[in-house]
Amino acid sequence: MSSRNLFILLTLLFIIVIFETGYYIIKTNNVEEKTNKTSTVNQELRSTSSFLDNDKQPSLKITFQTNINDKTGRTVFYEVRKTKNALNGYGKFEATYKEARDVWLIIGEFVKWEDIEGAKDKYIIIKNPKSNDILVKARVAFEESSLFDGNKKATSLGVENLDINNKQGQDYDKLGLLLSWTDDNINKIIKQGDVVAVHLLFMSQTDNLTQGIKKDEKGYPLVSWLTLRRFGGKQQIDREISIP
Question: What is the pTM of this model?
């Protein structure tokens, strides 16, 4: 082999070695970068829902949590694939009653109560947990009145038992009429940042059904039910109100 051919062969070998080495370095860096990104994402997910990743919650998928330190379930938004009628997600949801179709259910983050002049009733204000846009301002019955047909349609209070929802399907504990609760206890179980499902009151058969949701004189919808959520349902609520 001539010196020229030998030189060309060595040059080609050198180029191949350089190419292979560079490819290996680039591939290794990409793998490390992808691993680091995955680790970061997983760490972020664990930071918002670590207490939910256990055998107790086999079908509950947490999509958002307003307070990552909450362990009671009061601040979590979720999806449950096995539960047909679960209060999944957040936002406004329509329903049909008789001839009327209207927004019937709002799920969002509790902002505050607003007093109503001349009445014990209050407005509840609920917002979108991501955009902070107000989803609804609705009237809650804190006393018997003709507006709510006495106590026949007064606002009821309930709590989802998320433990049972995970395993068997939708389950609620009834907590009675809200007007029977003291302000102190209400403030213990409904706090800023809590997830609240607001069920609005449809017109009755004696009302104009085409109007859909019943409203007060200022045009704000009336609330039929407020549904909270807790792991343990009513047992957790009882623990909260027992705290001085």
Answer: 0.71
Residue 142 CA from chain centroid, whole number: 25
Q: In angstroms, how far apart are the furthest CA atoms of the chain?
A: 110
Distance CA 142, CA 177 (A): 9
> Where are the extended beta strands (E) located within 90-194?
91-97, 100-115, 122-127, 134-140, 156-161, 172-177
In eight-state DSSP terms, residue 66 is: S
Q: Which DSSP letter does residue 201 get?
A: P
Q: What is the DSSP secondary structure assignment for residue 222, as one 8-state letter?
A: B
Amino acid at 6: L
Task: Return the pLDDT at 93.
Answer: 82
Among 43, 42, 73, 68, smallest CA distance to 57 is for 73
- Going by DSSP bridges, is the β-strand pair 100-115/156-161 parallel, antiparallel, or unpaired? unpaired
In terms of Cβ atoms closer than 10 Å to its own Cβ (0-12, 13-18, 19+), residue 216 is middle
Asked if 168 contacts 242 with a C-beta cutoff of 8 angstroms, the reply is: no
What stretches in the chain show pLDDT beneath 70?
Answer: 1-59, 80-86, 95-102, 165-171, 204-211
Whole-angstrom Cα distance, residue 161 to residue 165?
6
How high is the pLDDT of residue 104? 80
- From the centroid of its chain, how far is CA 231? 14
Between the two ends of the chain, the Cα-to-Cα distance in Å is 97
Residue with tokens 């997910």: 45
